[in-house]
Amino acid sequence: MGLFDRLRGKPNVDSQDVPPAATQADASDAEAQQAPADAGPVSAAEPADAPKGVLARLRQGLRRTSQLLNTDIRDLFKQDGRLVDDDFVDELFAILVRTDMGTGPAGQIRDQVRTEFRGRVVRMDDVLHSVKVQLKQLMAQDETPLNLAANDPTIIMVVGVNGSGKTTSIAKLAHFLKSQGKGVVLAAADTFRAAAVEQLTIWAQRIGVSIVTGPSGSDPASVAHRAVAQALETGAEICIIDTAGRLQTQANLMNQLAKIRRVITKQVPEAPHEVLLVLDATAGQNGISQAKGFSEAAGCTGIILAKLDGTAKGGVVIPIRQQFHLPVKYVGLGEKAEDLALFEGGRFVDALLDGD
Ligand SMILES: Nc1nc2c(ncn2[C@@H]2O[C@H](COP(=O)(O)OP(=O)(O)OP(=O)(O)O)[C@@H](O)[C@H]2O)c(=O)[nH]1
Ligand SMILES: [Mg+2]
What we know:
Blueprint: H1 2-9, H2 21-24, H3 51-61, H4 63-75, E1 82-83, H5 86-98, H6 103-117, E2 121-122, H7 124-139, E3 154-159, H8 166-179, E4 184-188, H9 194-207, E5 210-212, H10 220-234, E6 238-242, H11 251-267, E7 274-280, H12 284-297, E8 302-306, H13 317-324, E9 328-332, E10 340-342, H14 345-353
Parallel strand pairs: 3-6, 3-7, 4-5, 4-6, 7-8, 8-9
Antiparallel strand pairs: 1-2, 9-10
Helix pairs in contact: 3-14, 5-6, 6-7, 7-14, 8-9, 10-11, 12-13
C-alpha cells in the first residue's frame, strides 16, 4: 500500500544527531537517579515513532472506535449489498454520530453517500471507500511535529484540566524524544500534590531522563526556572514542564501559568516554544468545549489528544480540529511510554477504517 511504503521509506532525520552519552546522563537535583541505560522498556536503537510501528500502534489504540465503525457499517449490509435509500443513509448517519464526530461532519458524509449512491444497490466496500475519502478531507492535516528551538533548549509547557493525561503524555513525549537521541529535563512544576511529583519522578527514572523537583506547595515557577537553568547548563535539547490540572475559571491558577511563562521567557526569550494542551478523548464534547477557553487563556500552540484507546469516540478529533484552530500534534493510545503517535489525518483514518 502506498501509504505504508511512504511511511517505511521516510528517513529518520533525527537519528543522525545523537548527542554524547554525557549530555543525557547529567544528574538532576531530584531524588531520582538516572535509571541504568538498559533498565527500562526503552531502547534508543528503536525510536518510539519508528515509521513502521506507527500504523500498527494507531490501529491497536483506535481499536474501539474502529470496531464500532466497521462492525456497525458492516451490519448495515445484507450479503448481496443494500439499496441506498433514506433509511440507509439515516442509519449510516447514526453510526457516524456515535463516534462523536459531530452532526455537522456526519451529515456531510451522509449527504455525499446519498448523492453518490441513491437508488442503487451497493456493497459495503463502495460505501466504506466513500466514507474514508470524506473523513480524510475532514481530518486533513499533515504531521505537525514539535516546534523545535533554533538554539537549544526547546521548552515545552504542558497544560490542561485535572486528570486529562498531562503527566503521562509528558512521559511518553520524553521517551520519544530521548529515543531520538535528545537530552531531556523534566520539570515537576505540579507542586500542588506530592503524588504528582512522585508520579513524574517514577517516569523519569523509568525512561532515563533528568527531572527537577521542588517541595510540595512550593512555587511552580521556581521549579520551572531551575529546570530550564539545568537544561541550559547541561546542554539538554528539551525541557518539558508539567503543570497542575486546572480550570480556566480558576483565576489564581491561570495566573500561576502566566508566571511560569514570564519566568522562563526571561531565561530564554523565545520560550515557551510549545504550550501543549492535553485533552481527554473520553471526556466527550463537554470536556472539549470546556478546554476551548483554556487553550486561548494559556496561549496553547497544539493539542495532545490522550486516551483515544479508552473510547469508541475517536471521531472526536474532527470537532476538536474544527473548534480549536490548533493542530492535534500527538495522540495518546495507552498508558505505556510507547503509546504516543504523531497525528496525521490520513493515517488516522486508515487506522480507523482498515479494521484489523
Ligand atoms: N488508556 C489510557 N490512559 C491514559 C492515557 N493517558 C493518561 N492515561 C491515564 O489517565 C490517568 C490520568 O493521567 P495523568 O497523566 O496522571 O493525568 P494528569 O493530567 O497529569 O492529571 P493531574 O495531574 O491530576 O491533573 C492515569 O491513570 C493515566 O494512566 C492514554 O493515552 N490512554
Ligand atoms: Mg499530572
